[in-house]
Amino acid sequence: MKTLHVNPKNLFEFTTEQIASDKSISHRCAIFSLLSDQASVVRNYLRAEDTLCTLAIVQALGAHVETAEDGTLTITPPARINEPAQILDCGNSGTAIRLLMGYLASQEGFFVLYGDQYLCSRPMRRVADPLRSIGAKIDGRSHGNYAPLGIRGEKLKAFRYESKIASAQVKSALILAALQSEDVCIFSEPELSRDHSERMLRGMGARIESEGLHVTIYPQTKPLKPLNLRVPSDPSSGFFFAVAAAISEGSRVVLRNMLLNPTRIEAYKILERMGAGVELIEKESLYESVGDIIVTGKALHGVEVSENISWLIDELPALSIAFAHAKGKSTVKNAQELRVKESDRIASVVKNLRLCGIEVEEFEDGYEVIGGKMHKATINSFGDHRIAMSFAIAGTKVGMEIEDTECINTSFPNFVELLSNIGHVKICE
Fold first, then answer.
1. How confident is the model over 113-164, as pLDDT tens digits?
2. Which of 142, 100, 136 is nearest to 121 (CA)?
3. Burial level of 343, CB count in 10 A (0-12/13-18/19+)?
4. What are the angstrom distances between the C-alpha of 35 and each of 29, 30, 76, 201?
5. Residue 10 pLDDT
6. Which of 186, 276, 301, 362 is the most buried (most CB within 10 A)?
7. How far apart are CA 136 and CA 197, in angstroms?
8. C-alpha of 424 from chain center
9. Which residue blocks in 7-88 are alpha helix, DSSP H?
10. Residue 419 and residue 422: Cα distance in Å, rounded?
11. Measured in Å, how far apart are the chain's first and last C-alpha atoms?
12. Distance in angstroms (rounded) separating the CA atoms of residues 400 and 251
């Protein structure tokens, strides 16, 4: 088990184009390429453990993947999906396993999905149950709530489904199932979740109409157009460095070529509400808006975060570090979904902040942080890459030791390398 030691540097100015490629877009590029009958071209695909697992699954299903010298992928889909002899390893990725559930449920054949110990402890009935209600045959541990999951794919019925949770993974799984259904389908959610799937699939020619909290999906009567895109940098990964600048008055970070989808930059807007300087500069827009993000450290004050939680689910651990350095009280509400991520992120954040001397109160659906003087501690990542990276960022201000950091490679393989620009870092076995 590797421990990451981080000690602070002085004020910094840091500009980078090396933030990890967007994980959500990369997963979708691999899976959505199977919806076309022509080769998709994907540049800047994220080469992290989770996304490489998804790419391997696409290959196991029959796609041919060529990698050019510059890393560009050409993914040629099979004429017909293979029924693989091996089980399909999703690694640590909830996005991969849940989207693949929706896709494979409508494909002829038998498929088994599983992942690492953390993924196999995450709930899957939120996807399995609505898919079963339209004819999908899905089974697994605890009545299909935990992987490994066995899927017997077949033609699915049309549906009108109202989700009780706002989740892009649930929505995307149902959209993929709907594209292969018998008739028009309607999906509704209580709050607008991230909309990458709708944007990308519309760009490929799918007929998907969004109105408020409702998505209408028309069956796919012919193969979709292939993808041809460059995956932008991940704003969730870039946000760690945004927080590093925000908690260090006078420091500045410039993040180049970032995804600027409105459902992905909410955390930056909260930093701005807290007093940090935040500037968004759009440079292009095809499937998604892409541009630069500039964050400057200033005095921070506490805020309440209770809306658009589904847009913040990945950034809240890092935001908790900003809360700890802000003047006054910050509160997170309506975030019970944090309890079923790679770790119970509410419990992980609360326990580790307390180890750092910060006053925190835990709620079932969130927590309250009283900003104060954070101090160095030895914290546990609980196998959660975002917990590990969030407290590593705290280390650039006060020093930190983070245990069990191999999980960082699931989403951001060059994180430690970039971190060395703003903190003194050392990895020990």
1. 999 998 999 999 999 999 998 899 999 999 899 999 999 998 899 999 999 9
2. 142
3. buried
4. 10, 10, 11, 9
5. 86
6. 276
7. 21
8. 27
9. 23-32, 49-60
10. 6
11. 6
12. 19
d(CA 7, CA 395): 6
Is 293 in contact with 255 (CB distance < 8 Å)?
yes
Mean per-residue pLDDT of the chain = 95
Separation between Cα atoms, residue 408 and residue 415, nearest integer Å = 8
Domain boundaries, the chain: 3-20+233-428, 23-217
- Which residues participate in catalysis according to the annotation? 314
Rounded to whole angstroms, the Cα distance separating 128 from 136 reads 8
Q: Determine the pLDDT at residue 154.
A: 87
Dihedral sign, Cα of residue 319, residue 324, residue 325, residue 329: positive
Q: Do the domains 3-20+233-428 and 23-217 sit in the same CATH topology, yes or no? A: yes
CB neighbourhood size of 301 (10 A): 14
Contact 425, 110 (CB under 8 A): no
From CA 100, how far away is CA 44, in angstroms rounded?
Answer: 22
CA atoms within 13 A on the CB side of 206: 29
Residue 418 tokens, joined: 């970039």
Identify the sign of the CA torsion 201, 104, 25, 239: positive
CATH, domain range 23-217: 3.65.10.10
Q: Which residue shows structure tokens 């038998």?
A: 110
Which band of pLDDT confidence, cut at 50, 70 and 90, is reported for residue 2?
confident
Which position has the token pair 């029924």?
83
CB of 322 closer than 8 Å to CB of 243: yes
For 318-350, the three-class secondary structure string (H helix, E strand, C coil) is HHHHHHHHCECEEEECCCHHHHHCCCCHHHHHH
Point out which residues pair with 379 in neighbouring strands. Answer: 402
Buried b (16+ CB within 10 A) or exposed e, 248-280: beebbbbbbbbbbbebbbbbbebbbebbbebeb
Amino acid identity, position 154: E
| CATH number belonging to the domain at 3-20+233-428, selected among 3.40.50.700, 3.65.10.10, 3.40.1390.20, 3.30.530.20 | 3.65.10.10
